[in-house]
Each structure stands twice: as C-alpha cells, then as structure tokens.
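Box 3.1. Reading complex inputs
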Amino acid sequence: MINGADTAWVIVATALVVLMTPTLAFFYGGLVRKKNILSILMQCMVILAVISIQWILFGYSLAFGPDKGGVIGGYEWFFLNNVGLKPLEGQTIPHQLFVCFQMMFAVITPALMVGAFAERIKFTGFLFFIILWSTFIYDPMAHWVWAPGGWLFDKGVLDFAGGTVIHITAGISALVMSLMIGKRHGGASSPSPHNLPFAVLGAGFLWFGWFGFNAGSALAVKEQTVSAFINTNTAAAAAVLIWMLLDWFIHKTPTVLGVITGAVAGLVAITPAAGFVTPMASIAIGAGGSLLGFIFVTYVKKKCGYDDTLDVFGVHGMAGIWGALATGLFASKEIGGADGLFNGNPSQLPVQALSVAVAVIFAAAGTFILFKITDFLIGMRVESRDEKIGLDLSQHHEAGYTLMD
Amino acid sequence: MKYIIAVIRPHRLLEVKHELEKNDIHLMTVSDVLGCGRQKGVTEVYRGVTEVDNLLRKTKIEIAVNDEYLEPAINAIMKAAPEKEVGDGKIFIFDLQECLRIRTGEKGNSAIG
C-alpha cells in the first residue's frame, strides 16, 4: 500500500540528496587552486549524469535486484524491467521512487572521491574509472549491506544511511587512488584554498542536504525519521565545536576551514547510526568523528606523506569507520535496529567490525585493480605540463575566472 | 642598481622563483597580467564556440637588484622560463635611479636586498 505522507517525504528527501552532489562540488571546488575549479565542478556534474544512467540501466538491478547467493543482485531488473510503481514488500513508497532515492546515493559516493585525486587526473581516465568503480565496488557493496539476502544484511549489520557502503568505501578508495596516482607537482603541501567562501557555501548546503540523506533513509514518516533528523544536526554541531576547539588549542586560532571540515566529519560519523541512537549518543558520535578526522588530517597525513588532496580519507574514511563501530556501541532498540554494547548487547559490535573490515579490504583491493586497468587502457594522470597549466584549460578548454572583463 | 621586469608563462612561475632563490635572489613582486604578443592564443570553447583571444594570461615578475646580481637573475629566468616556443615571454632591464626602504629610510645598495 502506498502511503501519501511517506511518498511525499521521500520525494523531498531524494531532491535534498540530489542537491548534495553539486554542493559537494562547491565544497571541493573552493578548496583547490583556481586553475582547477572547473575540473572539480565538471567531475561532480558528470558523475551525477553518468551514474544516474548507469543506475537505471543496470546498477540498480546489481545492487537491489533479486539476490544471487548473497553476493550480487540479478539481471531481472536491468533497464528497470519489472520495476514499477507498486511498493516493494515492506515499503510504502512506489518502487521507482526507491530507485531514485538510492540512485542519489550511488551518485554521491564516487563524487566524494573526487577530492582525493583533484588537480591531476585525466578526464577520460576519470570517466572510465568512475563507471567501473560504481559497477564493481559500489553496487556489490550496497547489495551486501542493504539488499534483503545480502550476506552482511543477513548477519544483521546496522548501517542506517550508508556509513559503510558510502563513506568507508569512498574514503578507503580515495586513499588508494591518491597513493597510486601520486603526489601533485610540487608535493603534498601545495597552495591553499582559492575560495573559502565557496567551500563554506558547499559545506552549509551539504549539512542541509544531509537531512534528506539520513532522515530520508527511514523511507517513511515515523518516529525513527525524526530521530535521524535530530541526530544528524546534533552530531554535526558537536563535530564543528570539537574541531574548532582543537584548532584553537593546538594551532592557536579557530579557522573557517576547520569548522566546515568538522561539520562534514560529524555528518559522516552519524550517518550509519542516525536512526539507531539517542541525541546524547549523537553528540559523542559527532565529537569522535571530528577528533579522528582532525588527527588524520593534521598529523597522520603529514607523517605518511600521501597526497589525499582534500582529505577524503581522513574525513570520510576515518569518521565513517568510527561511525560504523560507534553504532555497535550506542545503538538502542527503542530508537530502531538492535541494541549496542552500552545497552547490554555485546554481539552487535563484532558484526559492525566485520562490516568495516569487509568494506576496507574490498574497496582497497577493488580500487587497486580498477586503477591498474584504467591506467593501462587510458591513463589516469595528466601530462606534467597540463597539470601545471591547470585542468580547467588543459582538460576542458575553459577558464573559471577572467582577469579582466 | 638595475630593475628587471620579466613577463613569463604563468605555469613556469614556480620553477622561475625556485631558480631565482637558488641564485640568492629572494625579493620580487609578482602579478597576474594580460598581454598580446606573437603567440596566437590559448583557445577557449564556450558552448561549442571556439574563441581565440590574443590577450593572454601571463605572469609579470619585477626584481630590483644590485649590479652584481643582474647576470644571476637573468640566467635564472632564462633557465627556468622557456619552453622554446612562441609565448615564452620577455625580459626588460632598466637602470634604477634610487631605492628606499620605507621602514628605515635607508637608500641605495643597502636598501635593495
């Protein structure tokens, strides 16, 4: 039975999540040098288009189609065959609306990785890689965790809105990508953001869109929807304050870049837990994500020397791992899902840890292989001269800014 | 004292600056400029329409040096700036009449470096 309120809410939530991809583009775009801003905006917009089509043609069926041995969805729903407007079992929204909502998650996940290989990737290689990555990493991972019959789903893994499926896979793949494509010309400590106001605009609208991402994942209008809503905001707020205070105490200045990075870390951390914890727990989860992100962005990256340009691994990978594990600590059956360790159920945490390990290993190995294939067939990195001129002019023959009218 | 103005390709700036520093020249003023030369222009495409603008982006470096630093400065630029194609830029050299450090009021050779 289709429920009007549920359907209306999920339509709005889907639109909120669509907004997150162009918004992410501005968050990342403001953080690169001005000769590369268009390349970032372009990559995000093209992912929105390409993965939308991939999803309709076969991606959705691979992820959510009739289960084949717990590993992958079948071909029965290719080209949206047999996917109509009647709700799926256990849902109250039209099936095609569920397709759309999930489509936007499939879109934003590869877009998150854009920050890791920014300023040096060849557009053709990028395009090819993204299609492979979505098909061979995202779609199976979504199936395992979210689709009825998926092997991690059957083990009872809790991942409300995609901490494991989205942020850990994207964060780990981002690290592997940044290691394999190599540092930018001039090393990892290249110039600072060219337009922080863009980045703030982007982060602000990410926060806004994340309400659709998390509260929309309830797929209905019920108590849990509001839990996810309040937790999303609370975790982001706590994370902002923690990052600002860390900056203040350790670097002697509260910074704008720190505040917006903290917001994203908090939103990532609460994603898997949003519909399973209390608002008090969401403060701890947001704060923990922020602290871990801060440590990785400030110290670990510098020490290890990888050039994860915009800290996709530090923020999404690490806050994602924390959020997935924290779900096993703080989850409460009264809100939704199962009880966590602090509510007297020690058996949830190992399941969460297993899902983290699977996501890390699968994303790292898969990205390694897909990178090698793409690099062999097309090439991943631009010529040194093109990199110095900037990707906007060298890849797209356009300039983001003019010097005079 | 000499005053050097060099107009170079923007993406060569880091190499030129690095080379100047190797030759112990650390003080310079850098700006984004547009200019016309013999280079035919980088093409930009907007909605399928190719536009060739012969006002091209360049980077201007201005350096004031004592006479003995003139050769090292020019060598550094000549080493790092060229790609051996039209559009590599130009170097202009002027006699410099006077130089003052505003903070101390020093003049001449000691004010320059």
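In summary: Chain A has a mean pLDDT of 95.
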